[in-house]
Amino acid sequence: MSKRLIYIFIFFLGILANAQESPKELNKMTPEQRREMIKNMTPEQRMQLMQQMRVNKAIKDLNVSQEKQEDFKKLFHEYFESQKAIKDKFRQNFSKNDNLSEAEARKRINQGFEVAQQMLDNRKVYTEKFLKILTPQQVLQLFHAEKRMQEKFRERGEGHGGMG
Fold first, then answer.
1. How far apart are the C-alpha atoms of 3 and 161, rounded to whole Å?
2. How far apart are CA 62 and CA 134, in angstroms?
3. Among the residues of 24-101, which ranges form H helices?
4. pTM for the whole thing?
5. Which of 158, 122, 119, 149 is closest to 55 using CA atoms?
6. Quick check: 67 pLDDT over 70?
7. Position with higher pLDDT, 90 vs 157
8. For the segment 7-33, what is each residue's pLDDT rounded down to a tens digit?
9. How far, in Å, CA of 60 to CA of 16, rounded?
10. What sign does the dihedral 78-83-84-89 (CA atoms) show?
11. CA 87 to chain centroid
């Protein structure tokens, strides 16, 4: 798991190197220095860094205007956390090592459908909120980028239980 996190952070640090508003000290570091810095971070600091890199990349890619960036950052973080909370509800009850009965397996399948529906419903709610800050084209681009990132993680074997 920690090896996987390091790969994820290295990936995001590469993105960060190209981000407009990236912390200056990270841009001046060599890849080895960045890896060492990440290794010494707490899991909370790593997640915070990853979130910062995501939002900086989104701002750059979507060309969010200066006056809307703070609102966007707040809403983006809120959206990300709400999607994560929905996924985490499912993950708490899921273990690949379980020897499930048929009834338990069916229950988990149905829970997966419920979680997917909750995530879709949540995305619809946040679409309306994003549309108060972004154009419809930007919102579409944001969700498309989110999907591409999830696919990259899956390709690298870094996805989480298929609930992505």
1. 17
2. 9
3. 24-28, 31-39, 43-62, 69-92
4. 0.69
5. 149
6. yes
7. 90
8. 555 555 554 444 433 455 666 788 888
9. 11
10. positive
11. 11
